[in-house]
Design brief:
With about 180 residues, the chain is mostly helical. The protein folds into two domains: about 120 residues, no CATH class; about 35 residues, no CATH class. It contains eight helices and four strands; from the N terminus they run H-E-H-E-E-E-H-H-H-H-H-H. The strands form two sheets. A two-stranded antiparallel ribbon has the order 1-4. The chain has a two-stranded antiparallel ribbon with strand order 2-3. Strand 2 and strand 3 form a beta hairpin. The longest helix is centred in the C-terminal third of the chain and has 21 residues. It starts with a helix and ends in a 21-residue tail after the last helix.
Length: about 180
């Protein structure tokens, strides 16, 4: 693992992006965070950096070389960054200047909001686990054939150009050890 990258990898994975929260902040840059304590509603004021996140929400432990890939490469770069300037443009009624890239970025962002909450991520993780176990139980011989299939060995041991340069071990290694 690249030690420099590991130290800078995001640990707080925001299910509501900071750029969206900033639009709801008061003059000091803080947003209201509501919680229930001792049967009463309590309001805390926090900066967007410290709210609407879960530690390692999108981390994938089966990818030990790059557990934060989803947050860094997908959520940050492909979903949030392209959409970040759009709310201000919408509020400024700048719709006539929206091009195809703007509309695509905003649509991708809106769709991602449905899937990025902690509850949905937990259901996806559990559902994926259950589906995999059902498939393995239904066709154990198919799994055994694929597990030792020559094409996997060729792919993994073949030229380095056939796999991502960042990958040091097969992506299935962490979950398929006997």
């Amino acid at each position: 693992m690249n030690v420099c990258r590991a130290m800078s990898d995001p640990k707080k994975h925001h299910h509501v992006p900071q750029f969206l929260l900033e639009g709801w902040s008061r003059a000091d840059g803080r947003v209201a965070v509501y919680s229930r304590k001792a049967n009463r509603v309590v309001i805390d004021w926090r900066t967007p950096e410290y709210t609407a996140f879960e530690p390692h929400l999108y981390s994938i432990s089966a990818l030990p070389e790059d557990r934060e890939w989803v947050e860094r490469e997908v959520m940050s770069k492909r979903v949030d960054a392209p959409a970040a300037p759009i709310p201000k443009r919408l509020l400024d009624s700048d719709l006539k200047n929206f091009n195809s890239d703007d509309r695509t970025a905003w649509a991708r962002f809106l769709m991602a909001q449905w899937w990025r909450s902690p509850e949905v991520i937990a259901k996806l993780r559990q559902g994926g686990r259950e589906a995999m176990l059902r498939a393995l139980e239904a066709n154990p011989e198919e799994y055994e054939a694929l597990r030792v299939a020559p094409h996997m060995a060729v792919w993994w041991n073949g030229p380095r150009l056939m796999r991502p340069a960042t990958m040091k071990s097969p992506p299935w290694a962490a979950c398929c050890r006997s």
